[in-house]
Request: fold
Amino acid sequence: MAVPEWGVPILARSIPRDLNPAFGEGEDAMGLYPLTPLATTADLSGGLERLCGLGLISVVLVPDPLAGPPRERLSEAFGFVQPFKAHLTIDPARGRYSPSRHHAERIRRGHRRCRIDVGPLPLWLEDWKRLYRGLVTRRSVSGVAAFPDASFEVMGKEPALVAFAASVGDRIVGMTLWFACDGVIYNHLTAVDTDGYANGASFALYDTAIQHFEGQGVVNLGGGAGIGSGEGGLFAFKSGFANGEVMTSLCGAVLDPARYAALSAGVETEFFPAYRA
Reply:
């Protein structure tokens, strides 16, 4: 549903009846995944009032840390704000792109073994679907991150999205999707198969994408697979390209205190909303 005060839509979702059989039906809301791009001039309180008037119980979202309202304004509007996940960045203000020595060697090997092509996603849409389905299976990806094929068909129509494809011989073994918007470059999704990993495709893909967008702003490489900072192989991989780090915030607001309390009764957790812990 649209939230004009914020300049973005949000997603309404049904609350499972089994969370509280006596409660009855209800809905809460969540921001877009993985980041909610709130407008810089967003009327945060006005947006919350709109959602409250729609009968929603709560809303939770992760604002874009490199665009939109500053953390101080978020803290004033939302009752629940806490650090969520560190995102690695390449910030021109901190120096030119300079991968670590470890990564530089693997980048060279990746370029020797792989051919990297750049173009719109529809050129390689079926290969991308195959690669992403493989990633979902291999990593047991579930929930909102397990994008269906139909979402990529829609995504492919977005002219700002740029696809990078790595091939060994005549076979595509890895791809990564990026886009630039309002001075920020976003590393959106990457998927590589077994042959891609063996030939350093991930390193060559990231290096090509980063250089493709040089001069267009700060690069947000995203975070690791978990919550927090500095953990996991994905975070370590991205660290080798980065020269900075920014922490995202999880922001939540209770829109209907009585129904929220009824759903969360007896739940002890730092998760928001508590009844979904």
Notes: The first helix runs from residue 44 to 53. The two ends are 24 Å apart (CA to CA).
